[in-house]
Amino acid sequence: MAKGLYLTPLFRTAGDCGLLMEFGNAIDPGINQRIRAMAGVLAADPVPGIKEVIPTYCAVIVIYDPCVTAPDTLKPLLTRINQGLSDTALAEPDTVELPVCYHPTLGPDLESVAGIHNLTPQEVIEIHTRPLYPIYMIGFTPGFPYLGGLSEQLHTPRLDSPRKRVPAGSVGIANNQTGIYPIESPGGWQLIGRCPIRLFDPARKDPILLKAGDLLKFRAIGLDEFQELKGRQN
Amino acid sequence: MEIFKTIEPGAHTLVQDLGRFGFQQFGVPPCGMLDKDAGRIANLLAGNTGNQAVLEITFVGPTLEVLCDTDIAVTGAEMGLTINGVSAGNWRSHCVKKGDLLVFKQAVTGCRSYLAVTGGIDVPEVMGSRSCYIGAHLGGTEGRALIKGDLIKRFDAPLMGETRQLPEAFVPGYSHEIELRAVPGPQDDSFDEGLALFFESCFTVSHQANRMGYRLTGPVINQRPYTPSSIISEPSLPGGVQVPPDGQPIVLLAEQTVGGYTKIATVISTDLPRLAQAVPGDSVRFVPVTLDQAHRAYRERSDFFKALTAMDLQATGFDPKNLNQRLEQHLIQI
């Protein structure tokens, strides 16, 4: 059984339009898988009155229209759906591979991160590209993936003073987290590389590239390939 | 068709509709008009019954040159609108002509004014909404606030040929002392005495108040001992009252995506427009309500708008005496 998984989900009230269904209290792939399955069922078979379903680390947030439905109707329904989920019914997550150029011009903190851990930049790249990172949640900015699974060898504190502008595509590390900035924004993460693929493009049919539940793999590329892929995006 | 040329943009003028929905799971907040009541009423007064985009004008208003004859309606904060130097009333529509000059000044009551035009503001729809989200530079006028020289377009729709006005009885008063009804939770179990103190106390709106949220100052709200001050990050819904370790609550609004602090209570959606008009220095009290009471308020507001949509809002011929009767008749018909 997943670490921190409750025997029965806990419902919490989030105002007059929000219902939280909390499955556990830890960051754990098993809990997140269940949440993904739950969100999948609700997306495939919409429930009247449910306007939006948001999967998070430990909970599914359901946004409903109080003129159509109410928690008294939704709670038993969601409980039944959850009981009907069998572990075998869970679809295998998709694995998304993203190219990252770990060149010092694109990852200005790569060398200092390596220095902090007594590693060479090449070792940092090897450690960072090794895991399959589970995407637990998307948020913070459009398309920003909250990833699990960063090797302890690379846990690095945030910068003392955040940068005012972090370019879109920057790959960073903050403590036990790693992620990619989808849009230019301020940020305090240690930047070790950059991804040429757009994670967020409002003009695209699917504006958001990554989705919660997918697995993410980073592939190291050189500066030439970075420029070529970047050029192809425009 | 182009209807306004921006002579002065105002402090922070944004195109907003009712919001961008379905993308919160991807980190895109709902955005939309902060005071939905005033925004929806502006649309009704301009002859729009759908989700047309309006201009949300904050604190200091713009100066706009009218490029072709159109109907406009203004609601929300009183900003002393003049048309060619002549004072023009709030909570009503006006027929404006090519060459007219609209001047909004500083807000005297409330802080957000809404300007609707017949047909609605014409900007491209991005991910199902025309609302501007400055954080990600999307929607509205090129993903930013209005700037000098911007040309504003509207969608084609027949002009009303009449002026409309909101009956005086329905015009909300913007007080400097506001009460917000709130439902405890989602993490009210992290507080014990803190919860009682939260609902007993008076807070003050700080200067950190914007479309993301309103930070309040007041007595320190403590969590129960030995409960973690932060939770595993989760998306924030509008109205959530987050309590960071300093014990000073923040009411989250339309542009907050993910938060990691415990939320003691959630302001009911019916009362969020009142907070949207609050200015720094205003006092705020939270009144606990049950979820049933919150839902009743929500449905009453929904019925009110249905009735208002069905009502004849022509500016002449109001008889205040039978107004409630007329509204009730419409409520019965729903």
Provide a descriptive summary of the structure in words:
The complex is a heterodimer of chains A (234) and B (334). Chain A has 234 residues and is α+β, with helices and mostly antiparallel strands. Chain A is built from 5 helices and 13 strands. In chain A, the strands form 4 sheets. In chain A, strands 1-2-4-3 form a 4-stranded antiparallel beta sheet, covered by helices on one side. In chain A, strands 5-13-6-7 form a 4-stranded mixed beta sheet. The N and C termini of chain A lie far apart (46 Å). With 334 residues, chain B is α+β, with helices and mostly antiparallel strands. Chain B folds into 3 domains: 2-170, no CATH class; 177-289, Beta Barrel (Cyclophilin); 293-333, no CATH class. Helices cover 16% and strands 31% of the residues of chain B. Chain B has 5 helices and 20 strands. Chain B starts with a strand and ends with a helix. The A-B interface holds A 12-18, 20, 25-27, 39, 51-59, 61, 63, 66-67, 70-71, 137-144, 146, 182-183, 185, 200, 202, 207-208, 211-212 and B 21-28, 126-127, 135-138, 183-187, 232-235, 237-240, 257-258, 263, 266-270, 291, 294-295, 297-299, 302.
In summary, what is this structure?
The complex is a heterodimer of chains A (234) and B (334). Chain A has 234 residues and is of the alpha+beta class.
Give the tags.
heterodimer, A: 234 residues, alpha+beta, Gyrase A, domain 2, Cyclophilin, 2 domains, 4-stranded antiparallel β-sheet, 4-stranded mixed β-sheet, 5 helices, 13 strands, 24% helix, elongated, B: 334 residues, 3 domains, 7-stranded mixed beta barrel, 6-stranded antiparallel β-sheet, 20 strands
Shape of chain A: elongated
Radius of gyration of chain B: 20 Å
Helix-strand category of chain A: alpha+beta
Number of domains of chain B: 3
Q: Biggest sheet of chain A, strands in spatial order?
A: 1-2-4-3
Strand content of chain B: 25-35%
